[in-house]
Structure formats: structure tokens, C-alpha cells
Amino acid sequence: MFQTKTKPNFLYAPKIMTIAYILLLVYLSLDSFKSELPLSHQIMSFVIYMVPVLILLLFLWISCKYTLIGGSLYIVSGILMIILWDPFKKISGFLAAPLPLMTIGFLFIIFGILNKKY
User: Fold this and answer.
1) pLDDT category of residue 33 using cuts at 50, 70 and 90
2) pLDDT tens-digit series, residues 76-99
3) Which of 9, 45, 55, 64 lies 20 to 30 Å from 35 when distance is taken between CA atoms?
4) DSSP for the chain?
5) pLDDT tens, 40-53?
6) Which long-range contacts (CB under 8 A, 24 or more apart) does 59-67 make?
């Protein structure tokens, strides 16, 4: 009889995008096992490739608790990637690495603000 107004939860979109980006990085890190190097070098290479994944998992955990801080962390990491890595040599480098992180950060901030309004 009475309808309760439910809060729309927009925060699932950037969380799903983050998980998809993390899974992509994990898939790309599996490439370290296809070389002719000894197994110890391959495992070390895999561990080095997994460091950004662990950092992104930490950012995801923070952004689940504090959306504005987590979104800011994604944006800052995208900006640092632009400054330190210089992906503007090719547009594909910019589209592959910093742009998705900055998009996720902006979505966390926008949807975090929208979620607080409702």
C-alpha cells in the first residue's frame, strides 16, 4: 500500500569497471609465464606485475568505504601515470592506462555525491 522510496545505488558501475580493469591487468600479467626464462625469474616477474593490481585492490577497498577519497586516489594515480610514464607518445598508451583510472575516479566522485543526495 505504501511505497518506500529506495535509494538508487549508482556506485556499482565504477566498482564493476574497477574489477574489470583489475582482471585485465591480472590476465596481462600471466604473460610472464610464457617466456624461456627460469621459473624463479618468471615468478618474480609475475609478482612485479601484480603490484599495481594490489594497489588497485586497496583503492577499491578505500573507495567502497569513502567514495570521495577513493575517487581522488584513482584520479591522482592516473595523473601520476601520465607524468611518470609519458603515454602521449602514442594515443593507445593514454587510452589503455591512465584514462580508465581517471574515468573510474570521476565516476566514484560523481556517483558518491549523487548517492549522498538521495
Assistant:
1) confident
2) 999 998 888 776 677 777 777 888
3) 55
4) -PPPPPPP-TTHHHHHHHHHHHHHHHHHHGGGGGSSS-HHHHHHHHHHHHHHHHHHHHHHHHHHH-HHHHHHHHHHHHHHHHHHH-GGGSHHHHHHTHHHHHHHHHHHHHHHHHHHH-
5) 999 999 999 999 99
6) 59/18, 60/15, 60/18, 60/19, 60/22, 63/14, 63/15, 63/18, 63/108, 64/15, 67/11, 67/108, 67/109, 67/111, 67/112, 67/115
What's the one-letter identity of residue 51? V
